[in-house]
Amino acid sequence: MFRTVTDEIMDGPNVPESAHLQALEGLCKINRFSHTARQILAPILEMAQRNNLDRLSLLDIACGGGDVPIAVATAAKSHGLSIDLTLLDRSPTALSRAASAAHDAGIPCHTVQGDVLSDLPDSNFDIVTSTLFLHHVPEPAQVIDLLKGMRRVARRMIVISDLRRSRRALLWTWIGCRLISRSKIVHYDGPVSVRAAWTMNELSDFATAAGLTGARITTSFPWRMMLVWEAPTP
């Protein structure tokens, strides 16, 4: 299946706020169904326990409504791990929703508005995470540059969850988006996202080119893939 990049509705500048919020809620439901937060937390917990750490800083890029990093931080608390969240997104609507959701969950967070491809913070964080963003990046060279940027600001770990491109994934995404969400944006953007997604082999090549030596790339439920990279021990 060849990769096809088409503009997604939610990436447009003129999406009404109410429709944008409905779409973010739809993505929240999809991430909850996919157990995304649990999948991302697992390697973070393993690393923290191995290094006897009880507090970590985490930057989530293209955070959207913030549901995944907030759920990660909430679940981590039950394991005795505190996570200081910084959430980055270019959309003020998404950041406002993320800040409100974090407040409701009792999770302190700092929000930063900026373009992920050009405005990564200069600060360092223990962990940098990303969910459902890589397929938005048009060109391989841009993905490699983004991974290099994530490596630059990640002291300890990078964890990425994204779609993987296949015909079967396209079919089930078309069905699943309609079962889980009533958002017309989600119904359109979901299949478009699968067509624009990368394969595991492509992501592996990007990680190698970005210098993420030892990165682990695995399949994850339902039609996703995960990249986990840990910084070399000094």
Structure description:
With 234 residues, the protein is α/β, with parallel strands linked by helices. The chain has helices spanning 17-33, 36-50, 67-77, 92-105, 140-153, 167-180, 184-196, 200-209; strands at 55-61, 82-89, 109-113, 125-131, 154-163, 216-220, 224-230. It has a seven-stranded mixed beta sheet, with helices on both faces. The radius of gyration is 17 Å and the shape is globular. The termini are far apart. Helix 2 (36-50) packs across helix 3 and helix 6 runs antiparallel to helix 7.
Measured by DSSP, the beta-strand proportion falls in 15-25%
Shape: globular
Number of strands: 7
Distance between the termini: 41 Å
Order of helices and strands: HHEHEHEEHEHHHEE
Computed Rg: 17 Å
For the residues shown, what is the average pLDDT? 93
- Total DSSP helices: 8
Write the layout of secondary structure elements.
Elements: H1 17-33, H2 36-50, E1 55-61, H3 67-77, E2 82-89, H4 92-105, E3 109-113, E4 125-131, H5 140-153, E5 154-163, H6 167-180, H7 184-196, H8 200-209, E6 216-220, E7 224-230
Parallel strand pairs: 1-2, 1-4, 2-3, 4-5
Antiparallel strand pairs: 5-7, 6-7
